[in-house]
Amino acid sequence: MVHRAAVAEVFLTGWSRTAENRFALTAQWPRAHSYFTPVNGCYDPLLASETIRQVGTLLSHAEFDVPFGDQFLMWDLHHSVRPERAGVGAAPADLELDVICSDIRRRGRRLAGMRYEVTLYCAGQVIATGGAAFDCTSPAVYRRVRGDRVGATGLRPLPQALAPASVGRFLTTDVVLSATERPLEWQLRVDDQHPVLFDHPVDHVPGMVLMESARQAAQAIDPSRPFLPTTMRSEFSRYAELDSPCWIQAEPLPTAGNGDRQVRVTGHQEGNTVFSCLIGAPGAAE
Q: At the fourth CATH level, which superfamily is domain 1-149?
């Protein structure tokens, strides 16, 4: 229902319809996770984006009658997390989600795509907001669009990873960037055998991997200062292919008056922009 093979990667726990295009969902964030690790005692903000992503696929199948096997093309995904309310406590975080769907498009009776906005509550307080927009298509159309890319696998051997600590990770296997000779540019390191980032076989780089590359690029600018990505707004222009190098570029933006930091990250492949992400962190994060 949420396009995850492992139960441990499913964060949604229930749903119900509250109005024609409005839904109430529940979710749970674990205190510890093999990949979405806490940052300075705060839940990894990318948990919010992954939870929001799962909302779209769940509702599409369960409430909008999208058949299993249809393919989803994410156009944008964003989150804004309240870090002061997102601390890891003595028990898993039980969340309530208010979801409003809009721009619902159909091809005949079949859902062609939609946009949705999500408010996430924990203990009655807003812990995060976000949303996404996507298209969905039948397997036959997808095969025509993807052509000989269907069944593609990642480049081997993998390029050498950056030092994990320089991108806020603990394990080399979790690093998605490799150094280049150009400043503030890296090669995307795509391990299509990764148990979380590639939970099941796909023929392109998942959007969550691209968002992780943006987070790691923002952290790599200054490894000495933890970068808590409380805001992320990602736009996806085309599929990022597994079998071609993808280049990740970071552009630090002027610091806000309150000290918050922002970085614009873009990904390029075969001369085309595949995604862009505006990512922000509180200036007080040290």
A: Hotdog Thioesterase (3.10.129.10)
- The CATH architecture that domain 151-286 belongs to is Roll (3.10)
**Tens place of pLDDT per residue across the chain (286 aa):** 667 757 778 999 999 999 999 999 999 999 999 999 998 899 999 999 999 999 999 999 999 999 988 999 999 999 999 999 999 999 999 999 999 999 999 998 889 999 999 999 999 999 999 999 999 999 888 888 887 777 677 777 899 999 999 999 999 999 999 999 999 999 999 999 999 999 888 899 999 999 999 999 999 999 999 999 999 999 999 999 998 999 999 999 998 888 899 999 999 999 999 999 999 999 864 4
Tokens for 132, please give them.
Answer: 């996404």
Report the distance separating Cα 161 and Cα 98, nearest Å.
Answer: 39
Complete DSSP assignment for 133-176: EEEEE-HHHHHHHHGGGTT----SSPPPPPPGGGGT-S-GGG--
